[in-house]
Amino acid sequence: MGGGRRSLLPNNFTDPEAGWIVSGRKDNRNLIQEWIDQKTAENAKFQYVWNLTSFEAVNPDTTDYLMGLFEPNHMQYEAERLKDKAGEPSLAQMTKKAIQILSKNPKGFFLLVEGGRIDHAHHEGNAANALHDTWPSPRPCRRHETCLTSPTPSSSPQPTIRMSSHSQATPNEATTSLLVPGLVKTDGLSLAKDNKTYTTLVYGNGPGYLEGPRPNLTQEDATNLLYKQQSAVPISSETHGGEDVAIYAHGAMAHLFHGVHEQHYIPHVMAYASCVGDYADDNDCAASLLTPSTPSTPTTSGVSSSAVSLLVILGQTLATVILKYLC
């Protein structure tokens, strides 16, 4: 589920929301129709949806395969989502629906959830939209855990990983919460050495560079969704930072995340936790400790046999990996 319909439709095709498109596939294949034809031939229980109404009508109990493409290009920013004429579900809604469908598989599932528009907004120097897309991010995380634990009468806390792949070049004012875009306040508006206001978040580089003197911003300026934060270096797109970033984990195999790790270490932990790939025959991986006959009984490792799940948040791009594997 997500956006990008035009990448699956041929050139010169009528999009149900955008109308006539001329930036579709150069090979003129209609991959949406090919997927529909394939699932029909397999006599599968499937649905293809492209707007909020059809998405909400999907019954997880009678659907095994779901493709949802809600925009011809990128999904809307969270702050603009409710204004979309066709309507599109939130990240939390899509995550919940996916888990409801995938949880029916007795072998478990692997689910990747990404909210990449956070990163897009930062590259545009647009902190307001980036922060609006960041605010909802813990909600899908909490709902993952709720969805994964609620079907069983008793289960241990689901293992969760939160990590960042990169930071952004964003020096900030530590005395003011960055979750509230606007002007810095310390007993009234704070002024810089040029006796002008400044925002809670600025960028080290990006499109917000200004020629000449800085403007004296108002709160209305600074909280506008389209406002581009001031930057020190003029480039067309803000860049990532270079420092180490954090990773957080709890639950099964969470102890394997500690100190400093290279990023390629993360998928090895995921594979080890679920006993797949190179770790399929390992007797000490988390999933091998699960007992199918007692699906709600925690093992000595504290792992409930109901699920092994991992969640990964990649920097300013919200990328969530949920891994649930049943023996």
TrEMBL record:
This is Alkaline phosphatase, tissue-nonspecific isozyme. Residues 149-160 have a biased composition (Low complexity). Residues 161-172 have a biased composition (Polar residues). It comes from the Eukaryota. It is found in: Extracellular vesicle membrane. Residues 146-172 are annotated as: Disordered. InterPro entries: Alkaline_phosphatase, Alkaline_phosphatase_core_sf. It catalyses: diphosphate + H2O = 2 phosphate + H(+); AMP + H2O = adenosine + phosphate; ADP + H2O = AMP + phosphate + H(+); a phosphate monoester + H2O = an alcohol + phosphate. GO terms for molecular function: alkaline phosphatase activity; metal ion binding. Coiled coil: none annotated. Its main location: membrane. SUPFAM superfamilies: Alkaline phosphatase-like. Binds 1 Mg(2+) ion. Binds 2 Zn(2+) ions. Pfam families: Alk_phosphatase. GO terms for biological process: biomineral tissue development. Keywords: Biomineralization, Magnesium, Metal-binding, Zinc. Zn(2+) binds at D119, H123, H166, H240. Homodimer. Mg(2+) binds at E114. Its EC number is 3.1.3.1. It is a lipid-anchor; GPI-anchor. Its cofactor is Mg(2+); Zn(2+).
